[in-house]
Write a structure and sequence with these properties.
CATH superfamily: NAD(P)-binding Rossmann-like Domain
Keywords: NADP, Oxidoreductase
Structural class: alpha/beta
Number of strands: 8
Order of helices and strands: EHEHEHEHHEHHEHEE
Largest sheet: 8 strands, mixed
Distance between the termini: 39 Å
GO molecular function: oxidoreductase activity
Helix content: 40-55%
Number of helices: 8
Strand content: 15-25%
Shape: globular
Number of domains: 1
Strand order of the largest sheet: 3-2-1-4-5-6-7-8
CATH class: Alpha Beta
Family: Belongs to the short-chain dehydrogenases/reductases (SDR) family.
Pfam family, one: adh_short
InterPro entries: NAD(P)-bd_dom_sf, SDR_fam
CATH topology: Rossmann fold
């Protein structure tokens, strides 16, 4: 590893879109990628599955303040900075059916919204040590208020009130950080990977993880003139 390599953390990266994002970034010269996983063993297995020298597992459960703090301290002690953060960890419980419950709301928001916000907050001191901090929030078009408000809009047949609201909250969190660090040159953006075939939706999706990861990777690699505070997918910008 070179001292000039970009240090990257992808949360929820032991499988699915997160693992593919990690793979694509690690395949580029000059990037050292931390495979964030709440389960240590699965993180090790995921890192080994890529067969790349510039990846390593990092245990981080974004629903646990202690786990987030431990991960941040490890990155600080080993690298002293973080250049790219991909907030990818997420859960989808609505697909199991049944009415929304307080427990379902709390568990989903704990990961999708609170987890993304508190992970970002804990890593700000390390991102501040980067000359070009990049933060990507992997969200969903189900979090779009514009689409949901249109009776003929996209995915109107999918209720998913818990997941939708958690991703809408994530989008606002991302916008808050984009505004907070705009003048410092940070690029903070939201990516919609689309309806992708992963364990999250019991492999009901139609898109591939390869395609789903490309947009997040592009945002992670933005140059100094790149956009910030945007919500996009592979076809371009989508409405909030």
């Amino acid at each position: 590893m070179s001292a000039t390599d970009k240090i990257v953390l992808v949360t929820g990266a032991n499988k699915g879109i997160g693992l593919e994002i990690a793979k694509q970034l690690a395949s580029l010269q000059g990037h050292h990628v931390l495979i964030g996983s709440r389960d240590a063993e699965r993180g090790v297995e995921a890192a080994e599955s890529l067969g790349l020298p510039n990846v390593e597992p990092l245990t981080i459960d974004v629903s646990s303040d202690a786990s987030i703090a431990s991960a941040a301290e490890l990155i600080k002690s080993k690298y002293g900075r973080l250049d790219i953060l991909i907030n990818n960890a997420g859960i989808l419980q609505d697909i199991q059916g049944g009415p929304p419950t307080r427990a379902r709301f709390e568990e989903t928001f704990s990961v999708n919204a609170f987890g993304a916000a508190l992970t970002t907050e804990a890593l700000i001191p390390l991102l501040e040590q980067s000359s070009a901090a990049r933060v990507v929030f992997v969200s969903s078009d189900l979090g779009s208020l514009t689409f949901r408000a249109d009776p003929e809009g996209r995915n109107v047949d999918i209720p998913a009130v818990v997941y939708r609201s958690s991703k809408a909250a994530m989008n606002m969190i991302a916008l808050a950080y984009a505004a907070r660090f705009r003048e410092r040159g940070w690029k903070v953006n939201v990516h919609n990977p689309g309806w992708t075939k992963t364990d999250l939706n019991y492999n009901r999706g139609t898109g591939t993880v390869e395609d789903a990861a490309k947009g997040a990777v592009r945002l992670a690699l933005l140059g100094p003139d790149g956009e910030t505070g945007t919500y996009s997918e592979k076809e371009g910008v989508i409405p909030w």
